[in-house]
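Standup notes
- DV: blocked on the single-chain target, sequence here:
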Amino acid sequence: MSRSAERIVSLLWLLLEAGAIGRTKSEIFSYLYDHLDTSQTAKQRQFSRDKEALTSIGVPVQWQQQPQADDVYLIDRDQLYLPDLALTDDEIVALHQARALWMRTPIEDVIHAALARMTAQQPTTPPVVGAQLATGQSLLTELVAAAREQAPVKFRYRTVGREEITVRRVRPWAVLMAHQQWYMTGWDLDRRSQRLFKLSRIESKTISLLAAEVLWDQEHASARPADFDVEDIRQRLYTDQPPTDGYVWLATDTASSVRIRAQRVDQRPGWDLLHITYRDPLKIAATIAALTTNAQVDHDRSPELAELVSDILAIVRDAHRGESALTVPTLAKVARPRKRTGDREVIARRLGIVAVVNQHGGSLPRATVRQRFGISDATLTEDLAAMQFWGMPETDFAGGQFEVDPHADPIEISNAELLAQPWQLSAPEALGLISGLSAVTTIPGVSTTQQAAARSLERKLRDAVDTVAPHVGPHDAIVHPDLSLGDDDEVAEVLHQAARGHLVVNISYYSESSGAISTRAIEPLQLLYSAGHAYVRAWCRNTADHRTFRIDRIGSATLTTESFVPVKEQPDSRAIAPAVNDDAITVVIHATHRQRDVLGAYHPIATAVAHDGSVFAQLAFRSLTPLIELLTNHPGQITVVQPGNIRETVWTMTDQASSTSHESTRELF
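- DV (later): unblocked, structure below
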């Protein structure tokens, strides 16, 4: 990458140094391209790619056609530099929070570099909430770009209930999140109506852009309506139901997530009658069914819930009767996804380092630079070493290169003063920050002050970007994340408040690994969304160690008045995976296409995709409990295929529980 990056930065410096006069194409070629051992056509293509690279990182390269002279290229400094946004302290906090919502995605580094140069003069603020909102959604960036331009695209799509894959031609309008899943809505050009597409059902590896001519007879009909409201779509996806009372008998020695948020109202030898309140009947019924013979819904008080639990148990039981009829294909080991940083992102980061150091008088401690850009010392040294060859083309402008010592502390960069203030946001940076700011307002527990700061900064960014690229920041947002947690919002609000104010919280927690409920005092550090679940990273005073707690397994969370000092070294929040040992239960499961999205949260060891889009996966569990929960949450849609003894165990447990569920609780007790 070094030669390419060196040439791109040389092009930038040539145009910056020329100012409003600009440089002719002949001049540029004589300095940068004529010496290349390629054809004239290849040199022209390389020049076009280099200009595109600068534009993609937010540098507006302009072309001026001269009537009787060579074309001129220049950078308008009025459009190059980001206007003074006059950021408030609350807006700076909102900026850092918006960046933390795109962890482990291609856009993360881009936003991080933009944020570093935008807030070079202000102190950084560790984000309280982090999210891996787009992990596993490799097509998200492409669809967002198409929706921003309302450019028609095509992709291969598998509809639930059908084995065949169809090609869909769509003009995207927006990308939204609901139930921790991503959807794209737009105009289906073949069905001539608005449609909703789940991103995980797109079978294409990449999105193909279509020629604008495909819109010729639907140009008006296919355009995003002026009154388009993403909340209307969300309301159709959400099944918000009023709270319902339920009564469940639970074995006294059984710990469960059902117990941690329940009230005991009666007791009989070996059993506790619990009063629960729920909104999602399927979810609570699946949780109760997973307890098999250790739980029994009170038929007299909750007949509908009892019937639902009985149905789930029967479906899981029947799906595991005898040997599986499915043949397991060859499974391929899953390679854990790595977030790869592209050449343009690296160039943007390195130029960002130049801008930040320049804003501090050309000198800045290494630790400060590492912290602002989120990079290691080795990466910083590599970046600085590459900068030694940057600046004006060395052959024609001896001494016009950056002066920097890659190993010095503090870092000192000279001869690079042309980039002494933050430049404009690129389209990915602007979209990432704007959509991240819109997600900030959906975080449980976010204060009204933070909401107002996020909204005001979103308006500032839209106005700043509109002056250069109006198509980037339209008034109707393109990306709509959502961090609400439904029934878990109340607990998350307490944890958010505690992490923000550095206050100790007392929690009751159901540990799946130990199968016990305990009371703990924790120091919340960060809320984290990952693979469809919400967690809190915290220092646990009971174990004197960092721990990660799943929020839906926290029963009560009580804020105390005791404060704590956050530790400087916090655990890595980039990935959450359950620890399994040699005693783990390893199974091969089959998930229908409808439910294959679920498997990501269980970190498959190996997988294979069948012709109908269903998935076979090898999973490891610390105990039978999470496996049974997986099966009851998706009855008949996810089943154990191998080994046979686990299938038999599942059948036996659900058969016994199913038989018991048909008996009256009066007979049981």
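- Follow-up: The first helix runs from residue 2 to 18.
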